[in-house]
Amino acid sequence: MPTTETDEHKSLREAVAALGKRHGRDFNREQLWSEAAKLGYLGVNLPEEYGGGGGGIAELSIVLEELGAAGCPLLMMVVSPAICGTVIARFGTEAQKQEWLPALADGTRTMAFGITEPDAGSNSHRITTTAHRDGADWLLTGRKVFISGVDIADATLIVGRTEDSRTGRLKPCLFIVPRDAEGFTRRQMDMELQAAEKQFELTLDDVRLPAEALVGDEDAGLLQLFAGLNPERIMTAAFAIGMGRYALSQAITYARDRTVWNTPIGAHQAIAHPLAQAHIDLELARLMMQKAAHLYDAGDDVAAGEAANMAKYAAGEACVKAVDQAVHTLGGNGLTREFGLASLITAARVARIAPVSREMILNYVSHQTLGLPKSY
Questions:
Q1: Residue 205 or residue 228, greater confidence
Q2: What does the alpha-carbon distance between residue 152 and residue 164 come to, in Å, rounded to a whole number?
Q3: Which residues contact 48 (CB under 8 A, 6 or more apart)?
Q4: Sign of CA dihedral 118, 148, 92, 175
């Protein structure tokens, strides 16, 4: 794995940073999405033959991180091009690729992702949304919660389960559900966290889907699902690192300018050292994120799974600490709307919780990496 960024990655980072700076903290999501699409940033990870940039998750994570560092992250980048675009590019039929990938790349269409359920969380083994055949069609029934951006998405990639004809066991499968499908309803959830992308509870009541709504092989099971979940963790890390960098930059500027007793407060080690530690933690998290992206783009799904979980864990912890220290550095000003940090106190916690909690990541590492026995 390369230990330094290529010139192409550096140029991409600089260009996206300039875009983010033009839009800033008070960005309009639709305008930024449209401009990022026109510049080729939204589809940078998608195949060139379908209108994408031919890159990978490494490039897409740079885009999201730099937009976040400028104070204008686009959460749907985690979902539409990273999860849904990747899954369709790897496992979709030619018709699905032709229909969706060019539109996801140019930003004219978006796709949400539905896995989390009220009782199962993101545990694919406990998912109760089921699909069964009815002639040539599928009937999909179940509930989903905490699904981002369904109101602005043209379709949702739903994780359901079908019965394995050989074993009788239920296995995960992926279905493209159009926004206006009969029996597919949504209810906006009342969230304390204020974000451009809203959260929804979905109900699927015998939603009839044609055979071509199934993405990939119905017998592939977890392989196809984790092809989308690993990029999700990597992109969540990019989201968190960008947020942490934004908070840290605000604190650094303030610590340089704010003067008490004729001395900038940043000259005091009680201010300077915690900010330095926050910077170190963010840089270390970025290294793990870059490793995870490199492994995933190289096709090593097993190693990428471990690294993606570690990157998400490290980035979530680093983000929370950076935001907390930034607010603390500004004191009362850190809670004002002027500096834009107070809202990040809640937003930063999301990086610890979603799409998988830090405790479940520790379970994963202790079982899969360290070989320790399970407690459940």
A1: 205
A2: 34
A3: 54
A4: positive
